[in-house]
Amino acid sequence: MVMMVALLANDTYVQVIEAHSLATNSRNQRRLINEYATQRGMIMAANGQVLATSVATDDAFRFLRQYPGGAPYADVTGYYSLNYGAGGIENAENTVLDGTDDKLFVQRLSDLITGRNHQGGNLQLTIEPKIQQAAYDTLTKNGFTGAAVAIQPSTGQILAMTSTPSYDPTGLGSHDNAAQTKAWTSANAGDPAPMFNQPVNAAYQPGSTFKLVVAAAALSNHVADENTPSLPADPKITLPGTSATLSNFDNETCPGSVNGQVSMKTAIAYSCNTAFASLAGKVGAPALSAEAAKFGFGQRLSIPLGVTPSCVGPAAGGNCMNIPNGTPGLYQSGIGQLDVQETPLQDALIAATIANGGKEMYPQLVKSILGPDLSTIQGFSPKVLNDEVMSGDVANQLTDMMLAAEQHAGTANKNPNIQIAAKTGTAEHGTNPKDTQPYGWYVAFAPHRDIAVAVVVTAGGTLDAATVGAKVAGPVGRAMINAALGG
């Protein structure tokens, strides 16, 4: 037995420590032949659907990596390539998939004793194919560039995570150098490149979806309540201390005003910019920044893919949580402009936290680690990211406001049998924003049904500078919720 353990320790040293040294030369032929002599584990969806697998070949590299899931799952699986290494989950969970992880020590020892060929462990993800496919199909059929994320609010499990344009990782798994080069070039062409993981690494101005954070801060700090008309309904206001103005969509007076003022609920329902810019001014920069931090802004999460932090201010000294430019900057930040930037994952977390009564769960992409025989090696339990972003009462008030907002968010893909609480967003950007297609956002959840979604559409289709989030992102988000709930 001692001899067996010693042999296994030496085997582990060669595979992990010495292999790491050899890996400085990515084309080291011996290293690659040894690496590809092991059957790499599968990556599966929550329902067992195989998204990535290795099949035997008759060439020097014994196993070929294939991706039955294809382009809809590329943001999740990543790729595994002879020439280009690994990305996505293939990289983040590489030691599990190649079998060298400590969690698989007993399995390796058993293989050594019995003489079985060494195999990698398998990963079961939290992704639900019907939701993932609905998101990808709805984005692509309209020719949109964008991203979509779905989260289970009660657990933090990521139910869908996809973006367009995408790529099929199978080409990168080829053993043919020319085929790999062609696939790599294609996957890295354009802006955004298909290989760029928009759901977790693209941070865009969120527009009016950020009003949910402002509203949470206002309610939590007793600055305003849901139903009292106390916010300006003016079609435009002048930013304090400047001659610049900030206006509502189409320069209209906010509907439902009483003596020139509207309630927070009405301002959310009709997405009134002047009301929320003023509300942000009342909340103040410190309280608004603190509320955003509670939601996870400024944090670098691992799901286990690395997540780009969302921000409310410019990055400076490793911090991006200081709202700039005094009161004018605060007003602009209050409507999700200026330096406010969010990943689609962060916007989904905002909706999920409201849906979960104010408790924010840590987002998770891996459901369980399985042995080569599909036995469970480790299951992942829900973790709390923030136990109380807001009180349950504040979450209920925000839900009520979002139910009202959904009534003004378009009708495409709307199912009368599914109640949805939502908020749309339309964010200007670029050097000439009035002539640039804005970012269109939609965040939503189905109350008491345990699904929250976020969608951003950044380009594509027949869109122009007048495009709004309700028109482009809303139908994608509803398609995801419908797929999840059988609508």
UniProtKB/TrEMBL annotation:
<dbReference type="InterPro" id="IPR054120">
    <property type="entry name" value="PBPA_dimer"/>
</dbReference>
<feature type="domain" description="Penicillin binding protein A dimerisation">
    <location>
        <begin position="40"/>
        <end position="122"/>
    </location>
</feature>
<dbReference type="GO" id="GO:0005886">
    <property type="term" value="C:plasma membrane"/>
</dbReference>
<feature type="domain" description="Penicillin-binding protein transpeptidase">
    <location>
        <begin position="146"/>
        <end position="479"/>
    </location>
</feature>
<protein>
    <submittedName>
        <fullName>Penicillin-binding protein A</fullName>
    </submittedName>
</protein>
<dbReference type="Pfam" id="PF00905">
    <property type="entry name" value="Transpeptidase"/>
</dbReference>
<dbReference type="InterPro" id="IPR001460">
    <property type="entry name" value="PCN-bd_Tpept"/>
</dbReference>
<dbReference type="Pfam" id="PF21922">
    <property type="entry name" value="PBP_dimer_2"/>
</dbReference>
<dbReference type="GO" id="GO:0071972">
    <property type="term" value="F:peptidoglycan L,D-transpeptidase activity"/>
</dbReference>
<dbReference type="InterPro" id="IPR012338">
    <property type="entry name" value="Beta-lactam/transpept-like"/>
</dbReference>
<dbReference type="GO" id="GO:0008658">
    <property type="term" value="F:penicillin binding"/>
</dbReference>
<dbReference type="InterPro" id="IPR050515">
    <property type="entry name" value="Beta-lactam/transpept"/>
</dbReference>
<dbReference type="GO" id="GO:0071555">
    <property type="term" value="P:cell wall organization"/>
</dbReference>
